[in-house]
């Protein structure tokens, strides 16, 4: 039997070398407790994803019930429009929630993919390290450990060597436990990724269904307004109602302008700075649009069949298309009107205003300062509208003017 003295503890050196090798490979590895925490977080993520799928299913808008309920108000066009706009707002809000969920899930999926890649890489590194350790143990065998103990020169050295062997055994058990937990984390990441992907796909499918429902309601509205206004028996009443709507619009806008003017005078009296228009050109209020569906000026009304003044430019666009401030200014009004639908009115100074009508959603409020190009609303078909579009108007000193004078 080969003797090992103080100057040549061969097996001990090999044990320590193996430990150092494993420590180098495992140095960046998570602890067992950290892995258990990560597994628990993934299990919670899976549970949350399952709840989200159930919630998506439970919150599907009942479009047919909305359409059926509208039958009760068809004889009163204003009440019908207001009720249907409430339905449109409900469905649009649902679409916005789903789109926010889609963004959230896409971010979570990317994060889970990275965690899965890290867990797989760590699992492979641990596996290779354990193979090195097992190979060493197989090559040295139990006899080598016994020889290590029997060749100790003193009782103290014997105890030290017994301690090293115990540490190695403990280390092996810890690394095995970590390896097992890491495999569990890999599986948990895969399961979480699958559930998150499932939520994403369900949310995307639901957005399509809700958008189809939105189009159904808009088509119902278009059909009803067109039918009402084109019915020869309703012609005089429809024309009178249209004129009353325009008068209501003008009254609302005039009141907002009067309030803005009163504020301007107050600032003037206090020698405080006031908004002024610097003469710059406006930008288009929509980044993209299908076509101009109605121009500014006098034209034959499409359903009433009589000559009427159209006080703005209509840009046909898909529901939800961002509406941007054509120029910087202060929001004078942001609200709902049965004729204008959801609208925004911006004061640019010196009596110049822009108005944006029929929005599906508003993103600004009265008193807010906005910059040129800032998103202020989304295209819709609220109010007296027969399809998704933006009605864009410009007013100067209390009168409507041609928007193209500022857009070109």
TrEMBL record:
Source species, domain of life: Bacteria
Gene3D superfamilies recorded for this chain?
6.10.250.3150, Glucose Permease (Domain IIA)
UniProt keywords, alphabetically: Coiled coil, Signal
InterPro entries referenced in this protein's UniProt entry, alphabetically: Cell_wall_metabolism_enzyme, Dup_hybrid_motif, M23ase_b-sheet_dom, PcsB_CC
**Bilayer-crossing regions:** none
Domain M23ase beta-sheet core, first and last residues per copy: 308-403
A Pfam family that this protein carries is CC_PcsB
The signal peptide stretch is: 1-29
Q: Which residues form the Peptidoglycan hydrolase PcsB coiled-coil domain?
A: 123-187
List the residue ranges forming a coiled coil, or say none: 25-133, 186-273
Q: Does the keyword Signal apply?
A: yes
The entry lists its GO molecular-function terms as:
metalloendopeptidase activity
Q: What is the protein named?
A: Peptidoglycan DD-metalloendopeptidase family protein
Q: What is the lineage of its organism?
A: Bacteria, Bacillati, Bacillota, Clostridia, Lachnospirales
